Amino acid sequence: MAMTDHSLRRADELLTELVEMVETARTVPISGSCIVPREHTLDLLDDLRDVLPPEMARARVIVAEADGRLADAERRASELQARSEAEAQGRLEAAAATVREHLDAATEHAAQLVADARAEAARIVDEAQAENARLLSSAGVHQAATAAAAQVRADADAYSAQVREAADEEAALSRREAVDYATFLRTNADDYAERTLAEIVAVLHRSATTAERGRAELAARRGAPAAPPEADAGTASAM
User: Fold this and answer.
1) pLDDT computed for residue 233 by the predictor
2) From CA 43, how far away is CA 50, in angstroms rounded?
3) Which position has the higher pLDDT, 128 or 155?
4) Of 215, 234, 226, which Cα lies nearest the Cα of 63?
5) Whole-number Å distance between alpha carbons of 79 and 196
6) For residue range 77-132, what is the model confidence (pLDDT) as tens digits?
7) Cα end-to-end distance, the chain, whole Å
8) How far apart are the C-alpha atoms of 134 and 132, rounded to whole Å?
9) Who wins on pLDDT, 234 or 160?
10) What share of the chain is helix, strand, coil (3-state, %, to 5)?
11) Measured between alpha carbons, how far is 218 from 66 in angstroms, rounded to an integer?
């Protein structure tokens, strides 16, 4: 309901009296402050509140509701961000654990291959040495046995080197696969965090739009032009 002429005059009188009271109030020495009568000032403010239209109380309610919705949106945004960060951290930790498992398995397998190769090489050398000792009774046979033992030893060394090279290649392949898998999980975690932040922006945008609608209603009741929603929404998005 709009203010009547009597209400407007009364409001103007009360404001004028308040201004005169402040202007004529006794100044506090060495200060820019002044002393005004508290009870009289409160009475004037109560009278001024009585002549104001009831829409002012409704406007305060709308503003309070908008503030509550904004606070709720900020709380939900904080919860979503914390949950997304926790899920991303969990995914990264799981990926790191998987990488460690792959590396441990590859290292253990490579160590086993090297141990088997050394055992096989030692067995071949022992057999060659035993055969060589058996043939030492003959000079001619001794030379042949020596050559055969050298050949066997060379074969054993070559076999050990081949096994070690194969084990190193398998371990390198396992490490590359583990790194690729960790990169894949990290990319998925980043995508999930980006989608979650987009949802947070949408929630804040809707809350800002609701608040601006309340401001527009208040401005319409007071007869003042409302701010364009598009510009306010853009400001809310930028925040």
Assistant:
1) 44
2) 11
3) 155
4) 215
5) 11
6) 888 888 888 888 888 898 888 888 888 888 888 889 888 888 998 889 888 888 77
7) 36
8) 5
9) 160
10) 85, 0, 10
11) 12
Confidence of residue 1 (pLDDT cuts 50, 70, 90): very low
User: Could you tell me which residues come within 8 angstroms of residue 15 by beta carbon, excluding any fewer than 6 positions away?
Assistant: 48
Q: Quick one: what percent of the chain has pLDDT higher than 90?
A: 0
Phi and psi for 28 in degrees, rounded to 5? -75, 130
CA trace torsion 196, 201, 205, 207 (10° rounding) = 60
Residues 6+ apart with CB under 8 A from 115: none
| Residue partners of 116: CB distance under 8 A and separation at least 6 | 163
Say whether 75 sits in a helix, a strand or coil: helix
Task: Tell me the CA distances in angstroms from 117 to 9, 19, 35, 128, 156, one per residue in order.
Answer: 107, 101, 100, 16, 9
Burial, 138: exposed, middle or buried (Cβ in 10 Å; 0-12, 13-18, 19+)? exposed
If 0-12 CB within 10 Å is exposed, 13-18 middle and 19+ buried, where does residue 230 land? exposed
Residue 1 is classified by DSSP as -
For residues 129 and 153, give the distance between their C-alpha atoms in angstroms, rounded to a whole number. Answer: 10
* DSSP string across 171-226: HHHHHHHHHHHHHHHHHHHHHHHHHHHHHHHHHHHHHHHHHHHHHHHHHHHHTPPP
Between 224 and 168, whose confidence is greater?
168
Task: Give me the count of residues in the chain.
Answer: 239
